[in-house]
Amino acid sequence: MTDRLAAFQFVLSSGSRTTLDRIPDHAARTLSNVLHHLGEPGWSSITVQPMPDGSTFVRDVGPPPPMLQAAGTADAMTIEWGRFDSKGVWQVSVLGRGDARPSEPTQTISWSDGAGSARLFDDEVFDADVATAVFLQFVRALEPPPTYALRELDLSSRSR
Fold this sequence. Notes:
The protein is of the alpha+beta class. The chain is built from two helices and nine strands.
């Protein structure tokens, strides 16, 4: 008998939503396929989040469930983890490998034809192969692999 994953959905930058297969091998192939298409028209970002019990899709109402998102291209993307902290505050962190860093980010990742961008450290830039493993870990445990470093984003400076 195959272990099944919890119900997850993914949302693309184009706004299309679909559920992720609950069979781990199928989910891994789907995630890999989507992440390898990042940077193509309509494929500049992906958000993966669990679906509440009994729901068909997560709606844009109420508190958001934990999510993992990526944006950029298949060769160079940022991965961010969003969740509520222990005090109930929404927190978003950029994942990195934890390498030594200069004082300021040196890489810029853009998406949606330049409408969005992020300044990142070199160790915070991923390709689709590494991102697939990170996303698969997220759908198994609702968090990224513990070996990755997290840099919290200041959400107070973002427009709502």
